[in-house]
Write a structure and sequence with these properties.
81% helix
């Protein structure tokens, strides 16, 4: 009962990248290689930040099991503060990662496309991390189905936004790979805001008052969140680093091998 919706949510989040790969493939191998490098940079940094705020889950579960509503709400609020703090340097790194990719021997034309993609999707980094924090809360109180439904809605929106922004439909200019980045940003804000509204107004969640006193950080809970979360972030980053290194090595072989690698790894 608990695992099924969580598995579906995971598949939904992975499907966002899968849909991007399928649709970007219609733009050609250069665009597909560009999104491969972009995803490599984005998710390598994002997965560390996700790991840290994933500490919200066990902290919420502990408070939920003990029947302590106030510590539960505080844990979630500190997760949102942590997400903001981590997103600022992460966004700076993503905005300027192009020079590093060129130094590492990646094809300059591919890096140029990657930069355009990252400069669009970077605006969705913060809501992406905040969504992870709220997901830890919702699943920690044994209500995972809401996350599943919202994630699947996001997959549908992603396909539609990609179609409109990539190919220039409904009066929008054809943005190509950059349109994919903006579509992802739109989706990340959409799923975060929808989950935030659910967490604030849902009947099962009002008692926790997650968004009350949001402007007052609690250093005790903040330190505890980081103490639990940073080893999770590091372990996930090491695991993701293996895949990132593979993508970078494929990029040294050229555009077509990197594009093919993106298809294979998504499948």
């Amino acid at each position: 009962m608990l695992a099924g919706p969580i598995v579906a949510s995971q598949l939904g989040q992975i499907s966002l990248g899968f849909v991007d790969t399928v649709m970007v493939g219609r733009l050609g191998s250069e665009a597909l290689a560009g999104v491969a490098l972009g995803n490599t940079a984005f998710f390598f940094i994002a997965i560390f930040c996700m790991g840290v705020v994933m500490a919200v889950g066990p902290m919420v579960s502990q408070a939920f099991g003990a029947g302590e509503d106030e510590p539960l709400g505080r844990s979630v609020r500190q997760g949102l503060w942590m997400g903001l703090l981590l997103s600022l340097p992460a966004a700076f790194l993503l905005w300027n990662v192009g020079d590093l990719l060129r130094w590492m021997g990646q094809v300059p034309e591919t890096v140029a496309m990657t930069e355009g993609y990252l400069h669009a999707i970077v605006w969705g980094f913060l809501p992406f991390i905040w969504f992870t924090a709220l997901r830890g809360f919702i699943e920690g109180v044994s209500r995972p189905l809401a996350v599943t439904v919202i994630t699947l809605l996001g997959v549908g929106l992603n396909a539609g936004a990609n179609y409109v922004l990539m190919f220039g439909k409904l009066g929008f200019p054809a943005l190509g790979l950059v349109g994919t980045g903006w579509a992802s940003t739109l989706v990340y804000w959409f799923i975060f805001l929808l989950l935030a509204l659910f967490a604030k107004y849902g009947t099962a969640f009002r008692r926790y008052r997650v968004f009350d006193r949001l402007g007052r950080p609690d250093l005790h809970y903040f330190r505890e969140l980081f103490r639990i979360g940073w080893p999770i972030g590091v372990s996930l980053a090491i695991e993701a680093g293996l895949f990132s290194a593979t993508a970078l090595l494929m990029g040294l072989l050229g555009t077509v091998p990197l594009a093919a690698h993106q298809i294979a790894i998504q499948c």
